[in-house]
Amino acid sequence: MSDLDGSQLIRILREDHKADAAPEPSVRIRITAPATSALAVRGRRHDIGRAIANVLENARRHAPDGSAIDVTIAESGG
User: Fold this and answer.
1) How, if at all, do strands 40-43 and 68-72 pair?
2) What is the CA radius of gyration of the chain?
3) Alpha-carbon distance 66 to 21, whole Å?
4) Could you read off the pLDDT tens digit of each residue along the chain, which spans 78 residues?
5) Secondary-structure breakdown of the chain: helix, strand, coil percentages, each rounded to the nearest 5
6) What does the H/E/C string look like for 4-15?
7) How far does CA 33 lie from the centroid of its chain?
8) Residues 32, 68: contact at Cβ < 8 Å?
9) Rounded distance, CA 78 to CA 68, Å?
10) Between vectors from CA 72 to CA 71 and to CA 76, what angle results, nearest 5°?
């Protein structure tokens, strides 16, 4: 297990989004994150990537055509 910082998490999200994106997507995904973040996620990169992929896949599948999915990376207390 290792820590992933905020920039690595964003990279995983963007890589997954690009890999699964259709040439003309009917659902847009917007990823936002603070410019600087002390965010750290502990886990295996592959497992975290798979979890993110599952969430995005489900969101795409169930979102109406023409809608947008907003993904925000932020720190939370705890």
Assistant:
1) unpaired
2) 13
3) 14
4) 777 777 777 777 777 666 555 555 688 888 787 766 667 778 888 888 888 888 888 888 888 888 888 888 777 765
5) 40, 25, 35
6) EEHHHHHHHHHH
7) 10
8) no
9) 29
10) 135
Q: What is the pLDDT of residue 50?
A: 85
- Asked if residues 37 and 77 have their Cβ atoms less than 8 Å apart, the reply is no
For 4, 26, 53, the CA distances from 56, given in Å and listed in that order, are 19, 14, 5
Record the tokens describing residue 76, joined without a space. 């939370």
Which amino acid type is present at position 48? I
Exposed, middle or buried, 69 (CB in 10 Å: 0-12/13-18/19+)? middle
Token pair listed for 69: 């999915």
CA atoms within 13 A on the CB side of 11: 7
